Amino acid sequence: MKNSNKRKVIVYIAVSIDGYIAKKDGDISWLSIVEKEGEDYGYSDFIKTIDTVIMGRKTYDKVLSMVENFPHKDKKCYIITHTKKPHQDNLEFYTGDLKELVSNLKSEKGNNIFIDGGSEIINYLMKCNLIDEFVISILPILLGDGIKLFKEGNPDDLYELLNVNTFDTGLVQLHYKKK
Which of 84, 105, 166, 170 is most buried, judging by how many CB atoms fall within 10 Å of its CB? Predict the structure, then answer.
């Protein structure tokens, strides 16, 4: 049985009905179809449970292109990249071994760890058996093509459904934990 005091690694992400997290060119403008004033789909409550964010460099660049200020500057953030860059406050451009980083973070005291994309990082961490939970928001759109959340060759794992939330925008949110 897992120690409930241990930090959890949680993927919190949105997908199309057909399982894409972005169009081929990285476009995520389709996420706006569920924008509704005053509705954040539980994101602000979720973000209070984490103190560390891990994301790929392409995801980081996409976030920066959409907002004026990086939204996780109050958290310890690791941007997974192949290019060394100097640290900026709580932001570290990490070029080391991702499995080692996440394993070490899980063993330290702290709040949960948010995997904020992209799919390469998520799928690698799945193969390393390092993801504890998924919060997947399914948006009412078919993209037909793009960047899939789950790639072929992932381990055959079972997950327990913790919660399902439905919203009047058509968004359905599934919360799973690894068995």
Answer: 105
Q: What average pLDDT does the chain have? A: 94
| Residue 23 CB neighbour total at 10 angstroms | 16
Three-class SS of residue 74? coil
All domains of the chain in start order, with CATH: 9-26+51-178 (3.40.430.10)
Residue 79: per-residue pLDDT: 97
**Cα–Cα distance for residue pair 49/98, rounded to 1 Å:** 22
Instruction: Check: pTM over 0.85? Answer yes or no.
Output: yes
The single-letter code of the amino acid at 22 is A
Picking from 99, 153, 133, 120, the residue whose alpha carbon sits closest to that of residue 26 is 120
Report DSSP state, residue 39: B
